Amino acid sequence: MKLYTFSLAPNPRRVHVYLAEKCIELTLETVDIVTAQNRTPEFLKKNPLGGLPVLELDDGSHLTESLAIMEYFEELHPEKPMIGRTPLERARTREVERIAEIGVLSAIGTIFQNTNPLFAGRVKQSADAAENARTRLASNLTVLDHKIGDKPFVMGADPTIADCTLFAALKFGEFAGAPLDRGFRNVARWYDAFAQRPSAKD
Ligand SMILES: N[C@@H](CCC(=O)N[C@@H](CS)C(=O)NCC(=O)O)C(=O)O
Fold it and tell me: Distance from the CA of 185 to the center of ligand 1, in angstroms?
């Protein structure tokens, strides 16, 4: 198996963090999204949407979508679990991971695309869209701040896919003009601690 990736981008990063936490070693091949290597006809055969990461399977087929890739590895390597052990633990972990992706990562992506000059020629930028996304980001961080409380990891005593996605999202926020509001004290404490883990290093 091989992972096509671009380590500075948030979706690849959440898979990298996951793989490092699980001690899974994979061949990595960088595809530079800044120079649009992910938009070549050859790469679009692997993922017609052009997004990274893409997992190439041993039969030559490809798996896209970060969450599907993490869940595939989780089924291949169930120990030590990073989605939870019981049906309810797994549902709760997926619940929070979805909030981290849709409520935090996607909101930061919207802010980035609507404010950064890199996107000026690619999308019709809207200050209103960016402001709405900042409101959505704050609502979702309020919920996560409450859920994290004083836990060492997002879901409790151990790291899960929710930590992987939230860490990658907030790290991207630093670059994307949406740094974490340190008023979310529980999220900030968790983020600072998680950043020290070997899995979180670039
Ligand atoms: N829903 C996909 C999103 C993939 C995606 O959009 N990746 C971004 C990097 S974070 C990308 O490749 N952007 C460059 C592009 O689409 O041209 C996932 O979860 O993996």
Answer: 29
